[in-house]
Design brief:
The structure holds two protein chains of two kinds. By secondary structure, chain A is of the alpha/beta class. Chain A is built from eight helices and twelve strands. Chain B is an alpha/beta fold. Chain B contains nine helices and 19 strands. The chains are: A alpha/beta, B alpha/beta.
Chain lengths: 260, 418
């Protein structure tokens, strides 16, 4: 489904991703963990198409050359990025925003637009998933939302967009344990054989709730270790120290454990 | 009611007097603060003269530009009341509408406020001298109009002079209320673009506890100029809601002079100016607090694309003795291009104690992060831009109850084809 090869990204000549390789198969959930500044968020935004990076390498999703596409075309190709810091858009109604997003993607795929009525049914179902109240839809996008509400709104959007690949960037940051449970259960219910996920996180806590099939350690712009869930538990105990300073570089950026 | 007639026979005495001295008024220059950013070479092409009757036929596309607003409609073409296109049947009790020319013949003394003996500048002088026709709206004591009155001013530049002058008089009796919409548009009967300009002056008098919502939709073609002046005098406890949507014309100027002369009067001015190409959109506002406990707000938003220029020159004058004044002013601007320009300037003169005055101006660009966020959700860049611009402009539509106007403005903002 997703093949990333030798992905590089720099900002103003400063390299952040230094040759990242990753393959994600259909239905798989991959966790990417790493210390602050290792390039986790840059990876997410490089996939989604944020401007301002000099990008190299390849990233192919279902045969689409993501790196050659505008952000909106990547969304139409089935990519969804759950933002670490969801953006407030005062004056734009959440419902209108969601419906415009869904219909834009449908239009780009040559599908019929969804009527207001049908959309409401889709939105209601998505809201139930993340335990949101109706008034949520009528507020401006993220404007004045609490941290937890913003993250729930991300998962709500994901539920509406039904992406092929969801990249969730630090979805757990700033959440209390109850909000984390709600969001994790929302994410889990969206798992399926046709949908893959990349869960980016700093802490292993989230992985107690969203169990990954594979765990990758990202340090200094490269994946330095890959494994199964037990790798996350190892990190929980020992921290990232084993992987910083190049101690474990013997494994290089191998993809041991990751299948396609 | 006749469709106007030769200007001099019906004109108000002050109009005739100004006409005699018109050559003595020099046109404003860049040295005049209130005209500093105006395209003077373009203004120099304008020529004004007495209105011609009958008015020329309307070019076909002009009528389609008129927002379909339910209620009495007064159409004025080149400064002449147009009885054919106006719709004035079945006016409610307490509402009197006439042409300005007719009112000047029948009861000139009631137009003294509209026709002062002197003008501030040459364009006002032209309006006094040649703006002998137009519309008069009077609302009787205690009358609350349920439907808005719509005044449509249309400029079709003529051959011997390309400018037109219109006078609008709105008088509200004590404790009455009304909504008046002034749509200002234009067109050309020729195939090629011709220069020209409309010069519309509106004088509004609100008696005690009267309440008026007054909306100006300025959307002349970009080959033409619009000079709009609104002068308001408010008695005690009266309320004025002035909204301007200054969108069309190569140079679109909206000037408001509001005199709060009665205690406890309130005035709320808001507006949106949206420039593209090389448009210059100019708002010149002065609110004079001349009585106690009056409240005024000025809230204007500008969106400027391409090489357009916006001007917000907002004045608050608090006269001696106007204690308890509460005056606020804000001007927020969105620049969509690095060649666009906004000139925003507050003018505050406070000569009373116990006064609360606030003012603020902001200039920003479209939020790139918000654009990226929307695009990452599949919304195409152009649509995302439009959503953000509308969200910014939308605040000026808050409280506009007439759906047709909201739709008209939003639809107008979406136009990219002109």
């Amino acid at each position: 489904m997703l093949h990333v090869e030798n992905l590089t990204a720099s900002i103003g000549g400063t390299p952040i991703l230094k040759g990242l390789d990753l393959s994600v198969g259909s239905g798989e959930v991959h966790a990417i963990m790493g210390p602050n500044g290792s390039g986790k968020s840059t990876f997410a935004h490089a996939l989604a198409g944020r401007e301002g990076y000099e990008i190299g390498g390849t990233a192919v999703l279902d045969g689409h050359d993501l790196l050659a596409m505008e952000p909106e075309a990547r969304a139409a190709a089935g990519l969804f990025l759950g933002f670490q810091y969801p953006v407030e858009i005062p004056g734009v109604n959440n419902m209108y925003f969601l419906r415009t997003a869904l219909n834009s993607v449908r239009k780009a795929r040559g599908e019929d637009e969804v009527s207001a009525r049908d959309f409401l049914a889709i939105a209601n179902e998505a809201m139930a998933l993340v335990e949101m109240k109706q008034d949520f839809l009528h507020r401006a996008v993220n404007a004045g939302f609490s941290g937890g509400e913003k993250k729930r709104n991300e998962i709500l959007q994901m539920a509406v967009m039904q992406p092929r690949l969801a990249v969730l960037d630090e979805t757990d940051s700033g959440l209390d344990i109850d909000a984390l449970r709600v969001i994790a259960s929302g994410v889990n219910s969206l798992r399926g054989p046709d949908r893959s996920m990349i869960v980016i996180t700093h802490y292993q806590r989230l992985l107690d709730y969203i169990e990954p099939d594979f765990v990758h350690v990202l340090v200094n712009g490269k994946i330095v270790k890959s494994g199964d869930r037990t790798l996350a538990l190892h990190l929980e105990v020992n921290g990232y120290a084993d992987f910083v300073d190049g101690k474990n570089e013997v494994d290089g950026h191998s993809l041991s454990g990751a299948t396609t | 009611m006749t469709a106007g007639s030769v200007a001099t026979s019906t004109a108000h005495p002050a109009s005739v007097a100004v006409l005699d001295q018109i050559a003595g008024y020099e046109r404003p220059t860049k040295r005049d603060e209130a005209w500093r950013y105006a395209p003077h070479s373009q203004l120099a092409q304008l020529s004004f003269g007495p209105p011609h009757t009958p008015a020329p036929p309307l070019p076909g596309d002009v009528e389609q530009q008129i927002p379909a607003i339910e209620g009495p409609t007064i159409v004025i073409v080149n400064g002449v009341f147009d009885s054919v296109h106006s719709k004035l049947g079945d006016l409610p009790t307490g509402l009197v509408i006439s042409s300005l020319a007719a009112a000047a013949t029948i009861e000139p003394e009631r137009l003294d406020r509209h026709f002062p003996p002197m003008a501030h500048d040459a364009f006002m002088a032209a309006n006094l001298a040649f703006g002998t026709d137009g519309a008069v709206i009077r609302v009787g004591e205690g009358v609350c109009l349920q439907t808005p009155v719509h005044i449509v001013d249309i400029l079709v530049p003529g051959e011997d002079h390309n400018g037109s002058c219109t006078g609008v008089v709105i008088d509200l009796g004590p404790s009455s209320s009304a909504t008046v919409i002034e749509t200002r548009i234009g067109g050309s009967s020729a195939d090629q673009e011709v220069a020209g300009g409309s010069n519309v002056r509106t004088t509004i008098t609100l008696a005690a506890s009267a309440s008026l919502e007054h909306i100006v939709l300025q959307d002349l073609p970009r080959s033409l100029v619009h000079l709009g002046a609104v002068e308001v005098t408010q008695a005690e406890g009266s309320e004025f809601l002035g909204r301007s949507f200054n969108i069309g014309a190569s140079f679109g100027r909206m000037a408001y002079q509001v005199e709060l002369v009665g205690d406890g009067a309130r005035t709320e001015l808001s507006g949106l100016f949206f420039g593209r190409g090389e448009q210059v959109l100019d708002q010149q506002i002065t609110v004079v607090h001349g009585a106690k406990d009056c409240v005024s707000t000025q809230s204007f938003r500008g969106v400027l694309d391409d090489q357009s220029v916006g001007v917000f020159n907002g004045g608050i004058d608090v006269r001696p003795g106007a204690d308890g004044t509460d005056a606020t002013q804000s001007n927020a601007n969105l620049l969509l291009s690095n060649r666009a320009e906004i000139n925003t300037q507050p003018r505050l003169e406070i000569l009373a104690d116990d006064v609360a005055c606030k003012h603020g101006a902001t200039v920003g660009q479209l939020d790139e992060t918000a654009l990226y966020y929307m695009r990452s959700r599949g919304i195409p860049a152009e649509e995302a831009r439009r959503l953000l611009i509308n969200a910014f402009a939308d605040q000026t539509l808050e409280g506009v109850g007439i759906e047709t106007i909201r739709d008209w403005v939003i639809q107008r903002l979406g136009h990219t084809d002109d």
